[in-house]
User: Fold these one by one.
Assistant:
Number 1:
Amino acid sequence: IWGIKRRELTVVAGRTSMGKSAFMNQLAWDLAGSKMNVLYLSLEMDVNSLQERLFCNVQRVNNFELIKGAYSVVPEIQKKWKVFEGQVEDRRLEYCDYIGRTWRQIDDTLQGLHTKPDVIVIDHINEIMSANVKDRRHVIDDYILHLREMSVRDNFALILGAQINRMGQTETNKEPQLHQIKESGGVEQVCDLALLLWWPWKE
């Protein structure tokens, strides 16, 4: 794919539980490791959960062990956390779970920053705020267009997560298609790159 590019929109789409958040979290981590300023706006998961998943991924810790309380009794995991804290300090990666449900929130935030992000990751567009449920398609398409304009104006790469409609699961070919992105017709028209996640064995 020749990298993630500034002023371009990359869409990461997939059905539920196909690993969209994990994939975008890893993308953000790798980009931050390349000395990029990365802003990760989570509209679905809280910051602690994202960081815990990232820790388990980077330090190869079984997340189920953490859930069962292993951190307080396993010194090896505590040591890995200290290493992880050092790795985080070396990266310019910021998480936020209360900004991004409207494009105006993001625009206001950008206007107030002295150092603009090189990359903004939003997980995911189907969680944006909408006063009118019947008009979701229009609201999401408007959100995407404004973000696209901001990415050109402020020279950052934009990565958006999106859900694939479940209706595609009833078809003979289970592989997701771009036109199946939930609640939006604008994504396939304005995105520069679409990465569709699919685990055939899960079908």
Number 2:
Amino acid sequence: TKEQFESYINDNIKKSTLNITKDCLDKGIYTFGNTSGLKDVIKKAINKEEITVCTFGGSITRGASHHLPPKEGLECNFEPKKYIDVICDFLEEMFGCKTVRINAGIGATDSVFATHRINEDVLKYKPDLVINEWCCNDGAQFIYKQATYESVVRKLLQSGCALILV
């Protein structure tokens, strides 16, 4: 249940070395949407089964500049990591499961390009979870990108993986 999951997460946050707080988690969620796919991922994690996680997007997903120190005046109490590492480290530490990490981020690409590489770069790995991010490269000025973004999302959902949209 949602209550059991929250209790499990709260207990593990207390033990975490990742500097994650409940407040951070709450602020990081815009909407839960349909969480049925995530339920299967969490079940596998609790059972300590291997989980294949794929991040799919542009340069932010790839991890561009993740290794640079924070800009002057900004404080950072953690080591900057790529999306794939943050998510997999979280799953491994919280649940004790193993993860397979697929980083399908390529800088300066958009959902138009994604429609041509989704099979080879993502779906062939049969991921349990995909984090899909095109926020910088899918500008609103191009109306056709709404259709290509939707095409990518539909194809991911049809594959049966859990999906997080960033």
Number 3:
Amino acid sequence: MAIFKGRVRVRYGYSRWGYTRNNGKGWHGGSDEEGLDSTTIRMPDYKGKSISGRVVTARKVDRSTGSKTWEWGWYVCVELDAGQTPDAVNCLYFCHNARNLVFAPWGDMEEAMCKNDIPLYALESGDALAVMGSTGNASLASPPFAHCHFEVRATAAGAGLDPTAYTGHPNAVGTYGEAIDETEDSDMKFLEVTSGKCEVF
């Protein structure tokens, strides 16, 4: 399971992971993944193997705080369960979201409890995380385009590591994956909390 159902595109050379900006002098810690057939960001697998984890952060940081995290806009951080992959990756980041579909354990628990008492912060490959967007510094692009800045790290404060085992494609500009018939996820259900009641729409 890739980050999106169907095709994904890495649009620009500077959208790749590594020293891809400012003529090779600027660091880009992740891969800018653009879903072409679906806007729903999903928990990926690792080289075709299903993986699991839990949401540790699902938020937006205001630019006025001075934290560089504002650049990610709305984002989700998933901490992988231990011992699943042979690499150093422990944290997956999904950034620039239009909105998040999951919650951290200390987040909006009233809304989280609407899903039959199953905590929305426990995840496995294929689970929906967010809707692709252009929040944070992605809104400053000319022109802005909706995508997911996907970054993998060993620690929350560490540098971005090679994400290709999780994206399922090379660290290169191109379009990857197979087209799907529908242009949006037809099986998606969203929860709305009104007057203390949960409604699925």
Number 4:
Amino acid sequence: KLVAAGVAGSIVAAQPHVAVVRYDADGTLDSSFGDAGKLVLGMNGIGVATAVLVQPDGKLLVAGGRQRTELIPSRAFLMRLTSSGAIDKSYGVGGSIEQPAFSFSALTFDSRGGTVAAGDVLASYSKSGVFVRDFEPDFAALGVAVAPGGKIVAAGTQSFEGSQHVAIARAGSSNGSTCCGA
């Protein structure tokens, strides 16, 4: 299966909705997912999806930014969908989590089977969507990985004196221990 997440609707008119599609291996829409392979979320899904992660049990974690004001996402979100495309209400609060940041742009699993979401903040969550801890890099993380030993490594861009620079940081492990070093 191939899963893609993004947006349906107009971002300019402040009416974007999270959209997810799933394809079979032959490239056709997977009719067992959502509405004939497509899922556009209603009021719970106002925003833009920027990352998706498939769990070993087939459930989908979708991340991005919720649109609270016109044009600008103002709350990062993480939501879980069942393998058929329904919101998994057992995850987080009613199926989703919000974080006070603009958006998440990347997801990975941590060493405990939980999730690390990266964007304007790095946040770690348990398997059931309970917040564990967050880290605040000095840059916008665009990618994230968990290194052997559990340390979180993020990469992204940082503005400095009018130019963009590549930035990489290593944070404490996702189980709550602290570390240091970038």
